[in-house]
Design a protein that fits this description.
single chain, alpha+beta, four-stranded antiparallel beta sheet, 6 helices, transmembrane helix
């Protein structure tokens, strides 16, 4: 991919439509290309405003189809050797007394194999159940995020963050919720994560974590607005902190 090709990816990057490899290459390019970085900030803000006008949630049919497919995926059947065209006459077999130790080992092997297969079945069941739970959680959060962006009373405010990044906060007083949309943020240091906070008259209340592997994303703030007048962003250890341990990278006031 040439540099001229990278210039054409601003729209796809702003809409999170690039694969991991393309996203990494574009982010390296945008770090040295102010024109692309500025265009990404503008397109991200535009996408956020378009989301305020109209949004479509996940249909029940799509959910039912995904959940049904999860429970019907089966393991591939074992391969068998082709049958021989003719079976030679069976040889005369002599009864041979086998050592008792061999039988005990064979029995032990069968028991171990049965336990292994049983354990595999339990593991697969647990993974399928975990996948269904994650799918339901992701669907619920996506629906809530979409509802905030599409709320009739939704208001937004866009600000420029440190390092040339962009940030837009969308607030719905009726839903008592807010969404933060980032664009072009530098990845946090290794072992760190960006944490969002509600600003309650100078007291910071945790509002969730951002994905440390993404530099642009839309995040539904975790919790209700209550009396918060704005939000802040800090760099915290992986897993987050109960209270901010560093100075805010940015503090955004909620739109009136």
């Amino acid at each position: 991919m040439t540099t001229s090709d990278l210039h054409t990816l601003t729209g796809a990057y702003a809409l999170h439509a690039l694969g991991e490899e393309e996203r990494d290459r574009f982010e390296r390019h945008a770090a040295d290309c102010e024109a692309c970085a500025q265009e990404v900030r503008e397109l991200t803000a535009t996408a956020a405003r378009l989301g305020l006008a109209e949004a479509a949630g996940i249909t029940p049919e799509l959910k039912a189809r995904v959940m049904r497919r999860i429970t019907t995926v089966r393991q591939e059947a074992p391969r068998t050797a082709p049958a021989t065209p003719a079976t030679p006459p069976a040889p005369v077999l002599r009864r041979v007394r086998r050592p008792r130790g061999l039988s005990r080992w064979a029995l032990a092997a069968c028991v171990a194999a049965a336990a292994a297969f049983g354990g595999t079945a339990v593991w697969q069941h647990d993974r399928a159940r975990e996948a269904r739970t994650q799918a339901r959680d992701a669907e619920r959060r996506t629906a809530d995020l979409t509802a905030v962006l599409a709320a009739p009373d939704a208001k937004s405010r866009t600000a420029r963050l440190a390092g040339g990044a962009g940030g837009t906060v969308v607030v719905s007083a009726a839903r008592d919720e807010a969404v933060f949309i980032s664009s072009g943020m530098a990845k946090p240091p290794s072992g760190k994560v960006y944490q969002l906070w509600f600003d309650d008259a100078g007291t910071m209340r945790s509002a969730g974590l951002m994905d440390p592997h993404r530099t642009s994303e839309a995040v539904l703030l975790d919790g209700k607005l209550a009396k918060a007048s704005g939000m802040g962003i800090t760099v915290e250890p992986a897993g987050g902190s109960a209270r901010p341990t560093s100075a805010p990278l940015a503090v955004l006031e909620f739109p009136a």
